[in-house]
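Per reviewer request, we include the raw input and output of the structure prediction for the construct analysed in the revised manuscript.
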Amino acid sequence: MTDYDVLRVFCAPGGGYGNELGVVRDGSRVPERAERQELAAKLGFSETVFVDDPERGVIDIYTPTTRLPFAGHPCVGTAWLLDVPELVTPAGLVGARLDGEFSWVEARAEWAPPRTLRRYGSAAEVDDLPIPPPGEWIYAWAWLDEAAGRVRARAFPGRGDGIDEDEATGAAAILLTDQLGRALNITQGAGSQILTAPQPYGWVEVGGRVFLER
């Protein structure tokens, strides 16, 4: 089996929760796309990253079923792991920085895969949602405290690949931030925390805590 690290990205203040991420630091060991897709499916994380150049931050991102030009929690986690100022993705150049306990990346909303952002009237409604059948990718959200920018969210990929609900999704948080035009503090899944901030010229920062699981 190819060596890989497991991170938890967008963890809660105490270090719990977060979305697991697999990172193959030596992408040259799995050079072909078909091999990478097969390994990503075998590992079963919502995303797996293959690092093609650790010094330049060149990465390749896969779900269990498809390759992604950009994804939020893989970029936040891999930037933290490699300690680089930027990542090179097929979508474009992703700026990265560390700020105390938080790892941040900067990206554009149009880089995110399509998501259906579905607003609900209360956090309780979001909490009570059942897992929907496979179909569209749904980001369900409601205000916890609109004045403070606090959001409750859950994410349902709808891909039918065994990932019925994503614990924390940076790309969807970027889309919501772009739509609302304001900084957000998102509680997603069982208790993960995602922070966002709109930037000039259509850029959005997304950040959170990252821990090395193994």
